[in-house]
């Protein structure tokens, strides 16, 4: 079982989420240390965040659709199996 005592919201581990969290932590650390250019504005941060959220949402929708289609195929196969146990 993953250790969730440090951050109870991070109970799910996925390579894409791990990358996103690491990337965002790095950006926040750089912003706090003053390494970012002074021209970076709140609007740019909102746009970057919106793009990342949109990409994650599209990937999640694609994965969800693929899983649903696969589950439907398995269900149809089970419903249409003959006495020999093969799909029609």
A few lines on this structure:
The protein is mostly helical and 88 residues long.
Low-confidence spans: pLDDT under 50, at least 5 residues? none
Beta percentage is: under 5%
What share of the residues lie within helices? 55-70%
Q: Given the structure, what is the number of helices?
A: 2
Oligomer: single chain
Question: What's the total count of β strands?
Answer: 0
Q: Please, what is the average pLDDT?
A: 77
Using the alpha-carbon principal axes, give the shape. Answer: rod-shaped
Main sheet attributes: strand count, strand direction, barrel closure? none
Organism: Streptomyces tubbatahanensis
Protein name: Integral membrane protein
Keywords: Membrane, Transmembrane, Transmembrane helix
Helix-strand layout with pairing:
Layout: H1 15-33, H2 42-79
Describe the structure.
- This is Integral membrane protein.
- It comes from Streptomyces tubbatahanensis.
- Keywords: Membrane, Transmembrane, Transmembrane helix.
- The structure is a single chain.
- The two termini are 41 Å apart.
- Helix content is 65%, strand content 0%.
- The model has no long low-confidence stretch (mean pLDDT 77).
- The chain has a domain of 38 residues.
- It is mainly alpha-helical and 88 residues long.
- It is rod-shaped and about 70 Å long.
